[in-house]
Task: structure prediction
Amino acid sequence: MLLKDTPIRHKLMRAILLTSSAVLLITCSFYFAYEFFTFRNTSIRQLSILGEIIATNSTAAMAFDSREDANEILSALKAEPHIVAAILYDKEGNPFSNYPLSAKTTTVLSKSDFEERYSFEESYLVGFQPVIQGNKRLGTLYLKSDMGAMYERIRLYGIMAVIVTIISFLVAYFLSKNLQKSISKPILALAEISQAIAKRNDYSVRATKLGEDEIGLLTDAFNQMLEQIHTQNQEIQLFNKNLELKIKERTYELEIANKELEAFSYSVSHDLRAPLRSIDGYSRILIEDYGDKIDDEGKRTLQIIVKNALKMGYLIDDLLAFSRLGKQNVTKILLDMNAIAQRVTEEMVAQNYKTSEVTIEPLLSTKGDSSMLRQVMTNLISNALKYSTKKEKPVITIGSYHENDYDIFYVKDNGAGFDMKYYDKLFGVFQRLHSPSEFEGTGVGLALVHRIITKHGGKVWAEGKVNEGATFYFSLPVF
Amino acid sequence: MTNSIHDVDVLLVEDNPDDAGLVIRELKKINLGNSLYHLSDGAEALDFIFGRGEFSERKVEDKPKVILLDLKMPKVDGLEVLRTIRDDDRTKLIPVVVMTSSREEQDIIRSYSLGVNAYVVKPVGFDNFSKAVAELGMFWILVNQSPR
Result:
């Protein structure tokens, strides 16, 4: 596990332990080194003191050339078990007496060793001490000591160091374990609370501040943030509540408006029609009963009256259908557009329109409101047929294709077409691009198509050329 | 319009005098004009049928062969008349044809729920209208057998 991912407790403890171990190590090392070098110096001094003492003591023996005395003096060295050898050389450098007695040696001392010198050679401490009486050189003392003492001491220190290290480590461990709490505890508390908040989305809880240090600051900031969030949440809720109330109000108002519109349409459907009936009826009665008393012009005038009454009836019907659409809901089901197009075409062709060649290409099945889309097809196909009546060979094609999440249907004719200049008026209510004398119509058909398709979430558009025909498209979203 | 309030075959209850005029004219054309009586509101109609008020001379048993009933009328409207007629044992069998401008689904349903025999929408076009009236008259007076 990477250091940055270990929990804070462990991080802190590791830091403390590492620091204490390092300090301990450095201290021990220094102490060790210090001891080592001090001990060496002490050893040297000790040996040199010993050497001086022995040398001084052996001046008499050397002066009187008494080998026996010399041996005796040297044998006192057995008190120091670390002395492995000692040799008294005479003033020429020849061995005179040695210790231990068994280790006789015949090495002659070289001139360089005549000087007082103590040094380490291999793992032994050797020393040369001149034996002097007054200012007469009597000889040289050679001492050789092993470093057993030092090694023992080193071993002793080693063991002590290990023990101290272990104890210190344990103490450090327990101390750090307890001391890190003061840092990690508030942090963990904070972390815990934030986790709990995140899980339960309860912004009303607060973290407890455990001290005035930076963590305390953090806790304060944290609590402040929570306070803000909590307040904001409440504000949002209040806002939402108000919004819902507003929506309720508006919906209520809309419902009232809708009801008023319904009542309006209802009265339109009756009260506007009745007078039309009278206009139409009594005009005809006039022609029937008094036809012989009215001349052709008079009769023609009455025909015009009748025709207009009828037309107004159709206008009212179309307008009613258009407004009724406003409150209808779109119920989308999967539709067989082929069947719809087929049936509508048959109805249309049977009704009025003479031989027109209507080709229905295989149409995509799409989702939409059955009766509404039927209406759309009816309007578009009847338009195509109606505006093609003046052509010799009217050709109408109905097709569909898929593009970008939309099913697109089109009705194409080669009839009167329209001028693209007036495209904006095409789908307006009561807007017509031809005069009634050219082609009859109320101008509501396309507006109805536009309304229905828009309700489905689709688009309507058209292309046309005067006298060359027009193509009307509508798209339906595929979802 | 006949003068006699007795032996009436067709009771026309229609508040619009122009519409009434057209109906009467067509029925006259097929010779049913003489046994027709026209009233202009529902209250009068009920008085007529049940022989009360200004029609107290009439007998309930003298039932018309068919009642042509408009829906939208002042005072008592068509559906009220229909309900009242259907509620009374003496009159509940009289055939009633609603003739109205309304094509509203709710009106059709309500009328049929109250036991109307036919629901006819008055077309705007006069020729359609006269044809409808003639057919109605022929059927209910001449073809159909009404209970006496």
Observations:
- Chain B has a mean pLDDT of 87.
- The first helix of chain B runs from residue 17 to 29.
- Residues 10-143 of chain B form a domain with the Rossmann fold fold (CATH 3.40.50.2300).
- The helical segments of chain B are 17-29, 42-50, 78-87, 105-113, 126-143.
